[in-house]
Design brief:
This protein is an all-alpha fold and about 280 residues long. It has two domains: about 1-155, Tetracycline Repressor, domain 2 (Orthogonal Bundle), CATH 1.10.357; about 155-284, Four Helix Bundle (Hemerythrin (Met), subunit A) (Up-down Bundle), CATH 1.20.120. It has 14 helices and no strands. The protein has helices at about 1-5, 10-25, 30-35, 40-60, 65-70, 85-105, 105-125, 130-145, 155-180, 185-190, 195-200, 200-225, 230-255, 260-280. Helix 4 runs parallel beside helix 7 and helix 8 (about 130-145) runs antiparallel to helix 9. The longest helix is centred in the C-terminal third of the chain and has 28 residues, at about 200-225. The radius of gyration is 19 Å and the shape is globular. The relative contact order is 0.11.
């Protein structure tokens, strides 16, 4: 069971659940007052988590040979869970996710089927295409916030877009950093990732621009919130997300080892979590 939970990245799935829960409760004009969880939201959340779990499984299934080089100590598929079982789990979990999505409505069902297909294609094809794989998986992760529009008619679209963009940019930074960590194995199998194509120095420049863009959006958002009369939320965003991003920027400049980039990967995940928590301050 432990190996299965690690295979589906239970910690990442927990972050998805918390993100969707916070967005649903605190970005909805009615939920801020009622704090009621509707069946529609539960189905969307369950479907999203299942699709993400299926995506993690097929990704590990496809990366067995690369992971032997990149992270031999964390190898699960072929060591603890056979490839045949992993593939079967992927099919069953994906089918369940799409099936549940159709209970929400046919539009969400079709979208979920399309997402499952893209995650499969990402694991076997798109992740090896220069930069495209990074953008795709980050967009799909950010989409887990946007799909909450199916759960409520009173959700604040502008807020939803803001957090979707924040999730996309921070997710994209993390995906690029993960590629730097996995350079050795990716190079053996000729994966056209950013660091293997451009080299680490130029890849770090791409990260710098993404961080500057994210910081600009954060600062402009905080200025807008101050103008609208918010006090606690913009102060929190500056201290809990903008300031850590600035520190992250400085750490990235000096990073030159796999250990350094592993630390940066964990740090950007904490910044993403800080952004999730900020949703709860909107109602204050």
């Amino acid at each position: 069971m432990v190996h299965f939970l690690n295979l589906i990245r239970w910690k990442n799935l927990l972050i998805i659940v918390l993100t969707q829960l916070f967005a649903y409760v605190f970005l909805d004009q009615e939920q801020c007052m009622q704090l009621q969880i509707e069946t529609q939201f539960i189905l969307i959340c369950l479907s999203t988590v299942l699709l993400a779990a299926g995506g993690y499984i097929i990704n590990d299934y496809s990366d067995v040979r690369i992971d032997v080089i990149n992270k031999p100590d964390n190898l699960i598929v072929s060591r603890y869970i056979s490839k045949r079982v992993a593939f079967a789990l992927h099919l069953v979990i994906n089918f369940a996710g799409v099936f549940i999505a159709f209970f929400v409505n046919y539009k969400f069902g079709i979208l979920s089927f399309f997402i499952a297909f893209l995650l499969w294609q990402y694991s076997v094809r798109f992740k090896y295409i220069f930069f495209f794989g990074n953008v795709l998986v980050s967009a799909l992760m950010a989409l887990s916030i946007m799909v909450l529009g199916f759960a409520s008619n009173s959700i604040l679209v502008l807020w939803l877009i803001y957090y979707t963009v924040f999730a996309f940019l921070t997710g994209l930074i993390r995906e690029i950093i993960k590629d730097i960590e996995d350079m050795e194995g990716d190079a053996v199998f000729n994966a056209k990732t950013l660091p293997n194509t451009l080299g680490i120095p130029r890849t770090k420049i791409v990260i710098y621009y993404l961080m500057i863009l994210t910081l600009c959006i954060l600062v402009l958002s905080c200025a807008f919130l101050f103008m609208k009369g918010y006090i606690i939320l913009p102060v929190y965003l500056l201290l809990a997300t903008a300031l850590p991003l600035a520190i992250f920027f400085q750490k990235t400049i000096s990073a030159d080892s796999k250990k350094d980039f592993s630390f940066l990967s964990r740090m950007i995940k904490l910044i993403m979590l800080a952004g999730v928590v900020s949703m709860g301050l909107r109602c204050i």
